[in-house]
Amino acid sequence: MGVITTLTRAWLTRTFKPFHFTNEYDNMLDYQDTKGLGLYVHIPFCRSLCSFCPYCKVVYDEALAEQYIEALLKEIDMVGSTVGIDKKQVTSLYFGGGTPALLLNDIDCIIKRIERYFTITEGIGLELHPKDVTEETLAILKAAGVSKISIGIQAFQEKYLKLLGREEFDYDEMFKALKRVRFETVSMDFIFALPSQTIENIKNDIETAFNNGANHIAIYPFIDFTFTDRNFIKMSNRRKKKLLYEIVDYCKERGYVRDSIWTFSKNGTSKYSSMTRENFLGFGCSATTLLKDRFKINTFDIKEYQRRIKSDNLPTALTLNFTLRQRMVYYLFWTAYSMRVSPIDFREFFGESLERNYGFEIILARILGFVRKEKNQYIMTTKGSYYYHYYENFYTLSYIDRMWHLMKNEALPKELIIK
Q: Per-residue pLDDT averaged across 352-367, rounded?
């Protein structure tokens, strides 16, 4: 597995130089002239911990949550106060977790603090557990300025919820609340490639979502992180590939628009994605920041996060300073998630030609049927999307899994070298 990612990275970056994350960091972030900047806020609290979830989270504790919010607001001040007299224009703000709605009464305060320094142009998104989709909660979020919500359904069928460690839930109240309080985007998340799962099961989930308030869905394959628990046998790659093709064909037949590798929208305009942004600032424990020449990740340890902030230091745990080629590969990998890569956007971002840097790879991808050229963009095919996922799985286990496993065990690691 590591050999595949190592050879691919070496070929695309034209060097065997590894990704070398260190504990050195700047206490001021140079983002003021960054274009297309997004924002992310991490809320790490949950009522209970789902076994399949790899994200940074702890069981909710009121006193700890109050201390966390205090530190989070100070981190926003530390980063935002360097923007200057005029507010910095950003594209979007996303709240993830954890379960952000557990701090429902703090969301408005966090947004107002962010708006001291930033002007948000494309809306505010927030993740929700189905239990939190009540009329009262939705009304409070909408009044705070939230315009997009993503509900972590995973599956409507009880047998799959049990596999994922989720308890059965009565969705009638959730559906009623979504009818009464409207949002620009209502996305519902699902996991596919679970044991014995068929296209009929998934069709049922898709139609239940779109018939009950959703105008956007995300259907992610199950990823088996080494530090999470799984008590079932994984679906074979052959069956997973067949299921993906069936999902894509079904959504196409129904007129649902595929706007990224794993997402489809009912009207072609509703979007919810915190992953396809060129640059972003992250606030909170485990939050990442991606800028033109660097990537940084905050400590996963809540107590250490608070200690760093209290001592007037950013809670950065690891930093990677990109080479130009490394940044190009990172850009292309996550831009491809949107199913399209624009040579014009690539040149605007890097000041260099996409074809001059990766002409051979593009020709090969077209020959293999992974991409096609359309209106001066390279569009990923269904075949290409399957192999993107296949490689993403290797990348996730060779890179993200290693990083998160380290961060969960060490609050402030000395370094991380990924070859």
A: 96
Helices (H), 122-255: 135-144, 158-163, 172-180, 199-210, 237-254
Residue reference for tokens 């960054």: 34
Q: Dmax of the chain from CA atoms?
A: 58
Where exactly does CATH 3.80.30.20 map onto the chain? 32-265
Provide the angle, in degrees to the nearest 10, between the axes of the packed helices 343-350 and 324-335. 150
pLDDT digits (tens, 9 = 90+) for 269-319: 778 877 667 899 999 999 999 999 999 999 999 999 999 999 999 999 999
- Taking the C-alpha atoms of residue 404 and residue 117, their distance in angstroms, rounded to an integer, is 30
| CA 195, 200, 202, 204 torsion-angle sign | negative
CATH 1.10.10.10 domain locations along the chain: 1-17+324-411
DSSP type of residue 102: G
* pLDDT of 66 higher than 90: yes
Q: Which residues lie across from 257 on neighbouring strands?
A: 265
Tell me what pLDDT residue 4 has: 64
Q: What is the pLDDT of residues 314-345, one digit of tens each?
A: 999 999 999 999 999 889 988 998 999 999 99
In this structure, which topology does domain 32-265 adopt according to CATH? pyruvate-formate lyase- activating enzyme (3.80.30)
Helix (H, G, I), strand (E, B) or coil at 191: strand
CB 346 within 8 A of CB 340: no
**How many angstroms separate the CA atoms of 305 and 42, rounded?**
12
DSSP type of residue 342: -
How far is 195 from 160, CA to CA, in rounded Å?
8
CA distance 22 to 351: 28
What are the Cα distances from residue 47, in Å, to 64, 86, 101, 380? Answer: 14, 40, 11, 39
At the top level of CATH, the class of 1-17+324-411 is mainly alpha
Any idea which residue has 């009638």 for tokens?
A: 172
Q: How many CB atoms lie within 10 A of CB 196?
A: 12
Task: Name which of 150, 170, 156 is nearest 97 in CA terms.
Answer: 150
- DSSP string spanning 234-264? PPPHHHHHHHHHHHHHHHHHHT-EE-SSSEE
Mean pLDDT of the chain: 90
Alpha carbon distance 210, 256 (integer Å): 10
- Phi and psi dihedrals of 418, rounded to 5? -110, 110
Say if residue 309 is exposed, middle or buried (CB neighbours under 10 Å; 0-12, 13-18, 19+).
buried
pTM to 2 decimals?
0.92
